[in-house]
Amino acid sequence: xxxxxxxxxxxxxxxxxxxxxxxxxxxxxxxxxxxxxxxxxxxxxxxxxxxxxxxxxxxxxxxxxxxxxxxxxxxxxxxxxxxxxxxxxxxxxxxxxxxxxxxxxxxxxxxxxxxxxxxxxxxxxxxxxxxxxxxxxxxxxxxxxxxxxxxxxxxxxxxxxxxxxxxxxxxxxxxxxxxxxxxxxxxxxxxxxxxxxxxxxxxxxxxxxxxxxxxxxxxxxxxxxxxxxxxxxxxxxxxxxxxxxxxxxxxxxxxxxxxx
Length: 260
What we know:
Its EC number is 5.1.1.7. It is found in: Cytoplasm. InterPro entries: DAP_epimerase_AS, DAP_epimerase_DapF. It catalyses: (2S,6S)-2,6-diaminopimelate = meso-2,6-diaminopimelate. The chain has a 17-stranded mixed β-sheet that branches. It is built from four helices and 17 strands. The model has no long low-confidence stretch (mean pLDDT 97). By secondary structure, the protein is α+β, with helices and mostly antiparallel strands.
């Protein structure tokens, strides 16, 4: 079976993407997805996405983690899929699509800057040393003093596989406040390693970094793979709406690959 694929990245969070609007890739197995995402024996990616036909929307988003399993919402993936949809001829100023967590809308500024509207957040668990919330995917957020020296793989894995989260898993974000914005590093479930960036994680971190005032916020975010921005309105102590994840999404290359 020969597949035509595109490789996209958003601040270093990279994805294999295929145009599946005619259903030609519906039969992909979890093992095949895993093999395609393998960094030594495949194309190499943090995840794989299919651009699908979706009645009532401009397109549908189907997302798989690198382990081959379908997963929850991926923010950087949604931004990359929007850029891909535009390349595939969907030129509307505002694109509406359906993902696993519900409807989204997205716009583009220039050739590569994508603004993606995320779901509202109406609940944030606040413990003595952490926050826990769902921004389309579940995220554990911990603020630290020196995020760049942290062993994210070891500490993130310990939290992801602790008694509370082992069964379903969680993404784990370590956040350091800066003069302007925050620096975020993320251990992602399904990849089971640190990624260069995580869109839903960046969003979760930005929401928890907001001040006490109920107002509009615009928070710059630095990741290992580059810069993003999260815009939102804080409506209550732990409630947020009009959440936008904004940043670059670019084509790396395209090609064909034959799989068994």
